[in-house]
Specification:
With 835 residues, the chain is an alpha+beta fold. It contains 21 helices and 29 strands. The strands form six sheets. Strands 1, 2, 3, 4, 5 and 6 form a six-stranded antiparallel sheet that branches. It has a six-stranded antiparallel sheet with strand order 9-8-7-12-11-10. A five-stranded antiparallel sheet has the order 14-13-17-16-15. Helix 17 packs across helix 21 (796-806), helix 18 runs parallel beside helix 19 and helix 19 packs antiparallel against helix 21. It starts with 11 loop residues before the first helix and ends in a 7-residue tail after the last strand. It binds adenosine-5'-diphosphate. The site of adenosine-5'-diphosphate (ADP) has 18 residues, from helix 19 and helix 21.
C-alpha cells in the first residue's frame, strides 16, 4: 500500500509543546525563587532584629552594672573616707600605704584596667596599677562637670594620648557624706577596656556566619563615628566616619531612626540586610547586619539545584519530544521506504503486465497521442513500439471509426472511464475489431488516458455465429405454426411466438403480464398444475393434454398441448415450454361428425316414424277412398248416402293431396329445386283472406282468430313470393288451431328494421324449450297426445323454415308448455318500384 502521508517540515506542535513546558518550568522556578527570597528576607530581618535587640539589652545591662559598680564604690564609706583622708590629711604617709591596696580591691573586676584618684584640681593623686598616672584631655575637659556629679557616670569611648587603647571611664564622684557634706572632694576614674567585655558583647554572633556583624556607632555632628573595630575594615574604630545623610548606610539609617531594612549598603558598599537599635541611656546605636550574598547563598544553591533540575527537565522533555519526533520521522521514512518498495514492486509488476499482457495497452495524453505502448500493441499493429509512441490514436483506427474517437474521448473526459468497441487497423491495412476499456488517470498531477484494447475478432465471429444461430432459432420459434410459449417457474409467460399470440388473440406484450393459468379454462387448471409438479419432480419428462383455452375475446378454443421442462446445468428448473396446437376445428369436426351421426340415427328413426306416419296418413284416406268408392257401386246405396260417401272420398283425397304436397315440397327443398317467385303482393288483403278462411273453417265458438296488420293497405304492397308466404302462415295457423283447444289465435305482422316480422300466437299447449330447435327439423314431432290425435308428418315447420330462409329471413319460436306458442319469422320488406 503506497502511503501518501506528507511529512510536516517543522514539528510545530512539538515545538509549541516544548516551549510551553519549558516556559512553565522556568516560571515555576522563578516564582519559587521569589517567594523563597521574600520568605528568607523576612526571616533574616526578624533574626537580625532579635540579635540587635539582644545585644542592645546586653550593652545596656553592662552599662547599668558599671553604674551600679560606681554607686557601690561611691557609697563605700570607709573606702571613701580613706581616700578623703589620703587626699586631705596632713599625715598621709601612713595612709599612702593603705591606698594602693584599697584601690587594688576596687579593680578586682577584670574590665577595670586602671584606677586613678583625681583631686578637684585634676591632678592624679593615686593610681593602680599605675600605667597611666595622668588624666587625659578628654577627662580634663569634662572635669568641671564631673565635679558636680552626684553619682557615677560612664564616659563615652575615647582615646587618650598616653593610653594605648580605646577606652571609656567610669567616673565616680567622691563625696564626704559622713559629714553631711555633698561637695565632691575628688573623683575616682575606673578606666574600662572595652575589649574585655563591651566589644566582645558587640562582636559575638549567636550562630556562625561569614558576614554577620554588629557594630556600635554614635553621631558626631553630621557624621556617624564607628566605635568598635569592624569585621571587614581594619583600624576603623573611632576613625571611620560616614555621613549621616548616606541613604542606604545602616548606621546613618539608625541615626535617622530606622529600625530594620533589607535594602541597605554597608560601609564596604556591599548589599546587606540590617537591623538597628539605639542603646538606651547612651549615644550609641547598634546595627546588626548580614550580607545579602550570605543570606541568599543557601537559596542560591537551592536555586542552582532547581535551575539544574529545570534544565534537566527541559532537556529531558526536549529529548523525549526529540525522540518522539525522531520516531515519527523514522516511521515516516520507514513507511516511505516501504511505500517506495511497494511502488517499485508495483512498477515492476506493471512493467511485467505491460510486457506480457495479452491485451494491447496504451497510455495516451489528452490529445490522444500515444506516449506508451506495450509489446503486444507493437505485435498487433505490426509496428515498432518506437513507431507507435508519438502516434495519434486516430492513425490506428479504421477510417470509418475515426470520427467516433472525438465523442469517445469526450465521454472519457466527462465520466473518467469508458468501455466501447471499435475497429483498429494494422499497418498492412487489415482491420481488427477491438473492445476498449479506457480510463482517465492522473500521474503527478498530469492527466492521461489509459486504454486496454482487446482483440475481439474471435469473439465477434463467435457472437456472429451465435447471433445467426439465435436468429435461426428465433425464426423457427417465431414462425412455427405451432403455438409456443416459454414460461418461468410460476408459469408467467416470458416469450410467446406469433402463432401463440394469434391463437389466443393477444399481443406478445400483453401476454408477458399473465401466466398460462390466466387463459387456461378453469376446468383444466388443477389437472395442469398436477402435471407440472410431476414434471418438476421428474416423474414424467413431458406431458400432453387437450385443454380448452379462453381467448382474449372470451371465445373458447381447443388446444392440444405438449408441456416440457427446461433445466439449467445444475438441473434446476428454469423454464417450461408450452406447445399448443389449435384443434378447435378438429374438435368441431369431431363434434359435427358425432352430431351428423346422431342426426343420421335420428333421421333414420324419424324416417321410420315418418314411414309409419305416412303409411298411416296415406292409408287412412286411401282406405276411406277405396272403401267408400266400393260402397258407391253398391246397388242398394241411396242417393243421400252416395252424396255422403262422395264427400268423404273428396275429403280423404284432399287430405292425401296435402300429404303428398308436403312430401313433394320437402323433396324439392332438399333437392334445391324450389325457386322464389317474387311478385307484387297486397299483403293486407291476402292476410284478410287467410283470416276469413280460418275463421270460417275453425271452431269459432271456442277459438277466436285475430288479425293485426302492421302497415296501411297502401303501404302493404310488397315484393315477395306470396304463395310461399301464405303457405308458411297457413302452416303456422294450422298448427296453432291444431294445438289450441280453446282461447285465441293472433296473427299478423309489423315492420321492424326493414323487415316484416310475422307472428302466429296461440294459447295452446305450448312446446318445451328443449324442442324449440328440433321442431324445425324434418319429421320431428313433439310426442304428445295432441300430435298423436291429429297425426301429421312433422314436415310443416321444416318447410316453413326452408321457405323463410330462402326468402332471406329467419324463423323462431318462444313457448313454454301450457303457456301457448308464439311463432315469429321475418322477410325483407321490399316495396315495389313504381312504374
Ligand atoms: P305436423 O304435421 O306433425 O304438425 P309440423 O312440422 O307442422 O308437423 O310440426 C311439428 C311439431 O311441432 C308438431 O307435431 C307439434 O308437436 C309441434 N307444434 C307445431 N306447432 C305447434 C303449436 N302451435 N302448438 C304446439 N305444438 C306445435
Amino acid at each position: 500500500m503506497v502511503s501518501h502521508r506528507q511529512k510536516p517540515a517543522i514539528p510545530w506542535l512539538l515545538i509549541v509543546l516544548f516551549v510551553i513546558i519549558s516556559a512553565s518550568s522556568i516560571l515555576l522556578g522563578l516564582f519559587y525563587y521569589k517567594s523563597q527570597k521574600r520568605r528568607l528576607l523576612n526571616d533574616k530581618n526578624l533574626e537580625l532584629s532579635a540579635i540587635a535587640d539582644l545585644k542592645v539589652r546586653q550593652i545596656a545591662q553592662w552599662r547599668s552594672e558599671r553604674i551600679a559598680d560606681a554607686i557601690l564604690i561611691g557609697e563605700n564609706k570607709p573606702f571613701v573616707r580613706l581616700l578623703y583622708d589620703y587626699l586631705y590629711s596632713t599625715n598621709n604617709k601612713a595612709i599612702r600605704s593603705d591606698i594602693v591596696p584599697a584601690l587594688k580591691s576596687v579593680t578586682g573586676n577584670i574590665e577595670y584596667k586602671n584606677i586613678i584618684l583625681i583631686d578637684p584640681q585634676g591632678r592624679v593623686r593615686g593610681h593602680y596599677p599605675g600605667q597611666d598616672t595622668v588624666i587625659g584631655e578628654y577627662l580634663q575637659i569634662l572635669l568641671p562637670d564631673l565635679l558636680k556629679l552626684e553619682s557615677g557616670i560612664l564616659t563615652d569611648l575615647h582615646e587618650a594620648q598616653n593610653i594605648s587603647y580605646v577606652h571609656l571611664d567610669l567616673v565616680i564622684p567622691l563625696i564626704n557624706n559622713w559629714q553631711e557634706d555633698t561637695t565632691v572632694f575628688g573623683l575616682l576614674a575606673l578606666r574600662i577596656d572595652p575589649e574585655e567585655i563591651l566589644y566582645p558583647l558587640v562582636k559575638t554572633w549567636p550562630v556562625p556566619s561569614k558576614s554577620a556583624e554588629a557594630l556600635l556607632v554614635r553621631q558626631e555632628g553630621e557624621e556617624v563615628l564607628y566605635l568598635n573595630e569592624l569585621r571587614f575594615k581594619m583600624n576603623s574604630k573611632l576613625v571611620l566616619r560616614k555621613s549621616v545623610s548616606e541613604e542606604k548606610l545602616p548606621e546613618s539609617m539608625a541615626v535617622r531612626g530606622v529600625e530594620a531594612t533589607i535594602d541597605a549598603i554597608d560601609y564596604r558598599g556591599a548589599p546587606v540586610i540590617s537591623a538597628m537599635k539605639k542603646v538606651p541611656g547612651s549615644q550609641w546605636y547598634l546595627t546588626a547586619k548580614i550580607n545579602h550574598t550570605e543570606v541568599f547563598s543557601a537559596l542560591n544553591e537551592q536555586m542552582t539545584m532547581i535551575i539544574i533540575i529545570i534544565i534537566l527537565v527541559i532537556l529531558a522533555i526536549g529529548l523525549l519530544l526529540g525522540i518522539l519526533e525522531w520516531n515519527e520521522n523514522a516511521r515516516f521514512y520507514r513507511e516511505k521506504y516501504e511505500a517506495e518498495l511497494d511502488h517499485m514492486a508495483l512498477r515492476k509488476h506493471f512493467d511485467l503486465i505491460l510486457k506480457f499482457a495479452n491485451d494491447i495497452i496504451f497510455l495516451t495524453d489528452r490529445n490522444m497521442v500515444i506516449i506508451e505502448a506495450n509489446d503486444r500493441a507493437a505485435e498487433a499493429y505490426q509496428r515498432e513500439r518506437s513507431e507507435l509512441i508519438g502516434m495519434s490514436l486516430s492513425k490506428i483506427r479504421a477510417p470509418g471509426a475515426v470520427k467516433a474517437l472525438e465523442n469517445e474521448s469526450r465521454i472519457l473526459e466527462e465520466k473518467g472511464f469508458s468501455t466501447y468497441e471499435t475497429i483498429h487497423v494494422r499497418k498492412d491495412g487489415t482491420q481488427i475489431p477491438v473492445e476498449i476499456s479506457a480510463r482517465k488517470v492522473e500521474i503527478e498531477g498530469v492527466k492521461y488516458f489509459q486504454s486496454i484494447c482487446r482483440d475481439i475478432t474471435e469473439r465477434k465471429f463467435a457472437e456472429e455465429t451465435l447471433r445467426e444461430s439465435e436468429e435461426r432459432f428465433r425464426k423457427i420459434f417465431e414462425e412455427s405454426p405451432i403455438s409456443i410459449a416459454m414460461t418461468g417457474k410460476d408459469l408467467g409467460i416470458i416469450r410467446a411466438n406469433s402463432a401463440f399470440c394469434k391463437m389466443l388473440g393477444y399481443k406478445e406484450e400483453e401476454l408477458k403480464s399473465v401466466t398460462l393459468r390466466n387463459f387456461t379454462h378453469p376446468d383444466y387448471i388443477a389437472g395442469d398444475d398436477v402435471s407440472f409438479l410431476r414434471m418438476v419432480a421428474e416423474e414424467i419428462p413431458v406431458y400432453h393434454t387437450e385443454n380448452r383455452y379462453i381467448r382474449k375475446d372470451k371465445t373458447v378454443i381447443w388446444g392440444s398441448a405438449t408441456m416440457s421442462i427446461i433445466r439449467n446445468n445444475n438441473d434446476e428448473v428454469q423454464y417450461f415450454l408450452a406447445m399448443i396446437e389449435d384443434i378447435t376445428q378438429r374438435k368441431k369436426a369431431e363434434a359435427e361428425l358425432i352430431a351428423a351421426k346422431e342426426k343420421a340415427e335420428e333421421s333414420d328413426r324419424l324416417k321410420t316414424a315418418f314411414l309409419h306416419n305416412v303409411s298411416h296418413e296415406i292409408r287412412t284416406p286411401m282406405n276411406a277412398i277405396i272403401g267408400f268408392s266400393a260402397l258407391l257401386s253398391e246397388p242398394d246405396t241411396s242417393e243421400e248416402e252416395k252424396q255422403q260417401f262422395t264427400d268423404i272420398i273428396f275429403q280423404s283425397g284432399s287430405q292425401l293431396l296435402s300429404i303428398i304436397n308436403d312430401i313433394v315440397d320437402i323433396a324439392n327443398v332438399e333437392s334445391g329445386q324450389v325457386k322464389l317467385n317474387i311478385k307484387e303482393m297486397n299483403l293486407n288483403s291476402h292476410l284478410r283472406n287467410l283470416d276469413e278462411q280460418f275463421s270460417y273453417k275453425e271452431k269459432p265458438d271456442v277459438i277466436s282468430i285475430n288479425l293485426s296488420l302492421g302497415l296501411s293497405d297502401k303501404k302493404s304492397l310488397v315484393m315477395t313470393d306470396s304463395t310461399k308466404l301464405i303457405q308458411i302462415l297457413s302452416n303456422l295457423i294450422n298448427n296453432a288451431t291444431k294445438f289450441t283447444s280453446e282461447g285465441r289465435i293472433d296473427f299478423g305482422y309489423s315492420l321492424k328494421d326493414g323487415y316484416l316480422e310475422f307472428f302466429v300466437k296461440d294459447t295452446g299447449i305450448g312446446i318445451p324449450p328443449e324442442h324449440h330447435e328440433k321442431i324445425f327439423e324434418r319429421f320431428f314431432q313433439v310426442d304428445n297426445l295432441v300430435s298423436r290425435k291429429f297425426g301429421g308428418t312433422g314436415l310443416g315447420l321444416s318447410i316453413c323454415k326452408a321457405y323463410v330462409e330462402l326468402m332471406g329471413g329467419k324463423i323462431w319460436v318462444s313457448s313454454n308448455p301450457g303457456e301457448g306458442t308464439d311463432f315469429r319469422f321475418t322477410i325483407p320488406y321490399i316495396i315495389p318500384e313504381k312504374l
